[in-house]
Amino acid sequence: xxxxxxxxxxSVQLAAVPAHEQLxxxxxxxxxxxxxxxxxxxxLTEYDDKSKPYSKHSWCYRPDFKYAGxxxxxxxxxxxxxxxxxxxxxxALNEHVxxxxxxxxxxxxxxxxxxxxxxxxxxxxxxVKRVRFFAQMFWLERQNxxxxxxxxxxxxxxxxxxxxxxxxxxxxxxxxxxVPLSGAQATxxxxxxxxxxxxATMSSPHAHLVQAAGPSQSFTAAGPLTPSAAQVPAPQPIxxxxxxxxxxxxxxxxxxxxxxxxxxxxxxxxxTTEPLPQGRWTDGLVLPHAILTIRHSDWWFWxxxxxxxxxxxxxxxxxxxxxxPGIRVLEVELESIDAKKAELDEIVxxxxxxxxxxxxxxQLVHDGTPPVxxxxxxxxxxxxxxxxxxxxxxxIQQSPEDEEQLDKxxxxxxxxxxxxxxxxxxxELGVTMEQVL
Length: 437
Description:
Residues 254-278 are annotated as: Disordered. It is built from 18 helices and 10 strands.
């Protein structure tokens, strides 16, 4: 590779060489595209790893977080055609979760959302549909800066440079796409239509993830990219699809991966002669749907049973949320114990009047629907002041016998009430949630 060449994403490199149409496979010739797309949807959606159950007596156990999550993107290794049609699907279909303190103790994770998104290419960042933040109050109320001012992206590891996209190469990316394939254009365009169809999601345990992709999003390299043969960059040396797959798997941690932080990203002591491979970590990033969850153990001084309090977003964290590029929906989940139910409902009443200014001049406002109420039973170790020596144990159950002993010693009888309030961009009022997503 010449010294003035820039790294090209793996998907563009693979698209530069005509892919086999796989017409010998019944998957592409006999099966209806809608059925094939449902298979892709099912395979690339995160599911519970039943071999790694969360302990009910850990900080992270919740109704939607009972097991470690796992994504199986091996489908992308099968052939070039499948890769080109589905390589963005794992990112678009699944929720990206960041735990600000008291995170799960399993897996490898970036220090914060800055380093997480910095490991993606702009194309991948543009495919993100849904993020969730488990935020302690001491962290949330310090988030008073726009997102793009949080931190500069760090250098990427060497193995990422194969798929990284510097700012200088974005123009080339806007003109390059997959080589047209017979019937390939329909694959994930039909998939996204199936995502919006009720019959495609009715029986899925991850229906909320299926909804996240939206009815108009295409996962293929085709779409806004319209190339000619001359515009497709010449193929660069490729270490193989497997290397790109490993890099993609490292970037996508899944909705149950933990992200302690944020921690300051180390900055270079002096100027560097080599530019950051991806420029700003926000390049290409779109976050249309965000969820902010405040757990019982996230409130100020919950251990001392102090009154619940949260700043109005206009006073602190609203500027951070409002700078999310492309945000259209914000869900705020507030949780507390039965003894503080009245305080929780008072905060919810006040929250219905929140108006969060957006960077583009719009506002996020309450969508007009009543807050969704729910209740679940948690471990008695969460009763203030909390039993830290138990809660600080490993998130994954040590053994069924150990969990049974904990259940006998610490009853699962603590009532935890949840109130969920939905905010939408003011221009979106009057449309359904399915249309927004």
